[in-house]
Amino acid sequence: MGGVLQRNKKSKFLEHTCQSHERSVNCCAIDKTGELILTGSDDLKAIVWSVSTGEPKRILEGHKGYICCCDFWFNKKKQETQAVTASADRTIKIWRIADGVCQLSIEHHSHVMTKITINNDLIFSSSYDKTVAMANLRTGSLIRKFEGHQHSVTCFNLLFDDPAETAEKNFLTTETCGDSRDFLITGSSDWTARIWAIKSGVYLRTFQGHTGPVICMALDVASRSLFTGSSDHSIKKWDISSGEFIQSMKGHSSSITQIALKNKILLSTSADWSVRVWSADYGDFIKTFENGHEHMVSTMKISDGVVVTGDGNGVIKVFDPRVLHAKATLLGHKYAINCLYTFPGGIIISGSYDSSVRIWNIKTVLEKLDPVEAEDPKLAYDDDEEYFDGSRKNSLRTPSPQFDDTYDTDEDEFLRVQNEKEQIRRRSQVDDMLQSSVRQIVEYNLIDEITDTVLNQIKKKDSTKKKVEVLPELLE
């Protein structure tokens, strides 16, 4: 039928669909060789997959809570790549991939972790418990805890200064941080960002000015600038050396979900469905990507000169930042994209709330990128967005306003899928409200206000009526 896409048609970019998880996939990573994928899920399991076949190589079981973060670590002592997972059970586990045996379990937090970053044999982890922990991956021992935020630590970056530079060029003076040249920058739900000396653990300064939680951040090392994105709909630029506020970038109409730097261009995604481009040097708004998303943009990665974004509808877009419009749309996931990971050569890994992991290859898109086009964006723009089956946007019929073109089927099939989704939403609505309320209470340290009676009601969950009755008490 003309340009109408069929869901059962073989995707042009889809290499494999991996379906061994039973619940939402929350995180994913690729090892340095590009041969293995690691994913973590609400089903309490982590799975190591083969990129070439899409088959599971090892299922890692042992966590008692959902897995929120994962990564690979090359153990130099053992000369092998190991899997690292962080869970809502407050532990970090290191796994031997060969047989799936847990080699070490680390517990240095009192609440769920929000992010992990591995640097050599060190692991940094942030948490809802308001701290960042630095631990030794070989021994599991805690080296240092960075404490001071009033609410959960939502994001962080590591900043390593060049010791060869002169004192005038270093980020912070020796009077401020001693001989330390390595720094940790954290963002928090207390509306602030902070910078710490990693070697001493000393808190150095606060970046204060947002009127909502700091959700994401990016660093411009060359200009010594910090960018923070917040639920207050703004991006703020700061001078890392002095802590001074430089400027605010406004234009998004909802929370900033991700920010990233590409050369001197700052990219931002938002719950307002848009991907925006800014000048990192001057803070000027340049443009919103054309042919964009129709739902909250939840995640973003930059690789091979393209920007890859995923949204709450399960749609993945591939943008060329030089010409500011989408070059490809990857369809297949039924629900929200929770995580994306890219690998040089056009490999994209996506994990979704629909419990599936998909492996894509956009090599053909990359081959079509013409560097000459970027010299004149006006000439380069041709509205030539390619969908997964090779058809062109202009050949598609225009859907009615109420028809969700995320699903490329006829309207009967669309309505069936939408009805199915609506039933799922209704069944989970009360649970989602309850979970959101509890998380908010924990987030703002009101947990002591929950009485034993209310906690017992939550645990029982005898009926929808009881669940609804609990909510007003929780929010008082």
UniProtKB/TrEMBL annotation:
The keyword Electron transport does not apply. Transmembrane segments: none annotated. The keyword Repeat applies. SUPFAM superfamilies: WD40 repeat-like (SSF50978). It comes from the Eukaryota. It holds the Pfam family WD40. This is Oidioi.mRNA.OKI2018_I69.PAR.g10763.t1.cds. It comes from Oikopleura dioica.
